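Please decode residue identities from the backbone states below.
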């Protein structure tokens, strides 16, 4: 088992079955990637850019100190190094703002990097600077939290936004017996992915079967632990009859889990959403969070890395129908999504008492 976990921690399964949404999640699959050939004379040589140097691939996450983001950047770095594609540059601002990311993008343009991948803090505010990057010949893609289609060539999506939004409402409804007040604890008010999921939550709540459930507020913790904690406490104070909280953000999930545990509210206020197994195992075990969902953030970054390589070498342009091989994740296809295109990782996975022990040491 120790050997199994060590392998899995480095390379998790690419495809998490859709049946997991129905509560059929099993143990992690052993999907180790083959080790690169490092025999003498067979070392991978970084690809060269137009200037004759090694290509440089940059990834900018939303903010520093976010465990989810750290895993995503880890996956991006793994893909670039595994493919021997070039140099990796990882960046994350101290605060989750568009202004901080704009400054980083300007710096990368000045450095003449080959690719910029970004998890955006605002879907539209980054457009001018990202267009500037593309006009300078830099390939631009977004991942996880997207930017608008005019700002990038393609987006890497972790899962179908509709499924993500709807499944969280379905979960909290089951937890509270289909009746009572619920609230959403989101990241920032401008986060593209969060807002899309919340819209699908609201659409799900329009179904008559949820007539006895009231969404009282969408609160924003800005993906900061302290603020997410304060927002959770404020929700509990403002709505003493609150029965459930949905936190579609790993930072918010962990903060809410601690607040509910510290206040002895297990079984009184249910928590679900998107959380890291390593952070949420305690709260799943103690009953505060009966179950939750997520994808593998390492794989999100890993897929982004291979998409970045494919853009850099011209295998894909970001057009619908383009195909490329994403390492151990296999062949991926660019598909149409709204006004732009995207590459889909897979379905969200259900974490619950039956499997959390297997996953908490993985990520």
């Amino acid at each position: 088992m120790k050997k199994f976990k060590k392998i899995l921690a480095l390379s998790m399964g690419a495809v998490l079955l859709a049946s997991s949404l129905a509560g059929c999640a099993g143990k992690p699959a052993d999907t180790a990637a083959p080790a690169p050939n490092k025999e003498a004379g067979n070392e991978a040589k970084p690809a060269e850019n137009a200037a004759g140097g090694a290509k440089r691939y940059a990834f900018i996450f939303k903010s520093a100190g976010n465990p989810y983001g750290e895993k995503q950047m880890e996956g991006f770095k793994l893909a670039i190094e595994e493919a021997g594609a070039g140099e990796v540059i990882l960046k994350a601002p101290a605060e989750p703002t568009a202004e901080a990311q704009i400054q980083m993008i300007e710096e990368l343009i000045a450095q003449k990097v080959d690719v910029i991948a970004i998890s955006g803090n605002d879907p539209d505010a980054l457009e001018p600077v990202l267009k500037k990057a593309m006009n300078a010949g830099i390939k631009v893609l977004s991942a996880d939290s997207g930017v608008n289609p005019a700002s990038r060539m393609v987006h890497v999506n972790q899962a179908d936004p509709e499924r993500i939004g709807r499944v969280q409402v379905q979960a909290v409804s089951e937890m509270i017996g289909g009746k009572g007040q619920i609230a959403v604890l989101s990241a920032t008010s401008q986060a593209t992915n969060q807002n899309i999921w919340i819209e699908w939550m609201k659409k799900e709540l329009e179904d008559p079967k949820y007539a006895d459930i009231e969404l009282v507020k969408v609160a924003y913790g800005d993906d900061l632990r302290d603020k997410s904690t304060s927002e959770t406490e404020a929700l509990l104070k403002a709505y003493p009859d609150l029965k459930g909280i949905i936190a579609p953000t790993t930072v918010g999930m962990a903060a809410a889990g601690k607040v509910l545990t510290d206040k002895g509210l297990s079984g009184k206020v249910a928590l679900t959403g998107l959380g890291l197994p390593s952070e949420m195992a305690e709260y799943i075990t103690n009953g505060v969070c009966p179950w939750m969902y997520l994808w593998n953030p390492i794989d999100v970054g890993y897929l982004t890395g291979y998409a970045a390589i494919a853009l850099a070498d011209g295998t894909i342009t970001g057009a619908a129908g383009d195909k490329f091989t994403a390492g151990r994740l296999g062949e991926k296809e660019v598909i149409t999504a709204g006004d732009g295109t995207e590459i889909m990782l897979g379905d969200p996975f259900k974490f619950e008492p039956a499997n959390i022990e297997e996953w908490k040491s993985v990520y």
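Observation: The chain has two domains: 47-158+296-346, 161-294.
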